[in-house]
Specification:
single chain, 349 residues, mainly alpha, 16 helices, 79% helix, repeat
């Protein structure tokens, strides 16, 4: 039995905020509370409010503001000797680093957060930090290293009845199965995640699960109409909560679905939309994946010479190698074969 989804990153006077609160509302409330706590000389409450400010900015795509806020939260928590609050700030910083594609920094900050959470006796931030490490490894494509950790965290979340963390773990495991070609298993896991998220009123988790289902429905079943309908439902939830990053990934997935259906002009338009959104929020992983889709769509439309296409793919390969994204890097190699290109840009005969 799962309880209603909670948002433990909203703490102190902000603990009444819902996991589904609009991020603009969260930012306004947290900023007001942070200012009041600073005036009152309450360092612990200031650190908690700054954490919520950081998370709202991060999810809205305001990366520079988020960077300043999590660091301010950490410094204030350290001045108060509040070890759990220091761990939460490090978790926020590590999550932001992953979002920005700085995976080595993400690993370092999240390991520190996990250790500090354990030392401070905060099992929630310890678990969230371990989950962050698992997600960072999964995004990197190192499934063997983090698969067992995902399973362990899922078991713990189920045992404690934590809906939000259960949904997160299910979606992560599902994504690894999807990327490994085990579509039926991935679909079942995404479907379970969607059901739990909906029952627990976790709209963010529900939107990501619907996106995963749309991907499987498209790639496995070729059901474009249903995939687009699932993405439209997910988009509504993203817009309601102002989830900028999730919305951009939704648009990229819509482009993927259209591309698979041979609707290349529509796909290119969506890839370009997602690309602009990712660039605005300085999210290099999403930017690189959108660029890859756009390159492929232009090639299919005959809008780019083979040599230019190959050059763009080569540049993307360098970018993804630099970020350490193994699965995404493999997608670039696959694109060469799919488009009939050699690395030098010549059409294969």
């Amino acid at each position: 039995m799962f309880s209603k989804a909670l948002a433990p990153e909203y703490q102190g006077a902000l603990s009444a905020l819902s996991v589904n609160s609009s991020l603009t509302d969260v930012l306004a409330a947290a900023t007001e509370q942070m200012t009041a706590a600073e005036r009152a000389g309450d360092a612990q409450e200031t650190a908690r409010a700054a954490l919520a400010v950081a998370e709202a900015h991060r999810r809205l795509g305001h990366v520079e503001d988020a960077d300043r806020a999590w660091k301010a939260s950490y410094r204030t928590a350290r001045s108060a000797g509040d070890v759990p609050a220091m761990a939460w700030a490090l978790w926020s910083g590590g999550t932001l680093a992953r979002q920005r594609g700085a995976l080595p920094l993400a690993f370092r900050l999240l390991r520190l957060a996990a250790d500090m959470g354990k030392r401070g006796g905060d099992v929630v931030v310890h678990g969230y930090s371990l989950a962050g490490l698992a997600e960072t490894g999964r995004i990197q494509g190192d499934y063997e290293a983090v698969g067992a950790l995902h399973d362990e965290l899922l078991a713990e979340a189920r045992e404690r009845g934590e809906a939000r963390h259960t949904v997160w773990a299910l979606e992560g495991i599902a994504q690894m199965h999807r990327n490994s070609g085990r579509y039926d298993t991935a679909y079942a896991l995404f479907e379970e995640a969607a059901g739990i998220a909906e029952a627990a009123d976790d709209r963010r988790g529900h939107a990501w699960a619907l996106r995963g289902l749309a991907d499987i429905v498209s790639v496995r079943d070729g059901d474009t109409a249903r995939a687009l309908e699932l993405l439209s439902r997910a988009e509504a939830g993203c817009r309601e909560m102002n989830l900028s990053s999730a919305l951009a990934y939704n648009h990229k997935m819509r482009a993927n679905v259209l591309y698979r259906a041979g609707r290349y002009a529509e796909a290119l338009e969506r890839y370009q939309q997602a690309l602009a959104e990712f660039r605005e929020m300085d999210e290099p992983r999403g930017e690189a994946l959108s660029r890859l889709g756009a390159v492929k769509a232009r090639a299919r439309l005959g809008a780019a010479e083979p040599a230019r296409t190959a050059a763009e793919l080569a540049d993307l390969g360098v970018v993804l190698d630099r970020m350490g994204l193994r699965h995404a890097r493999a997608m670039v190699d696959k694109a060469h074969a799919e488009l009939g290109l050699s690395v030098a840009g010549e059409v294969r005969r």
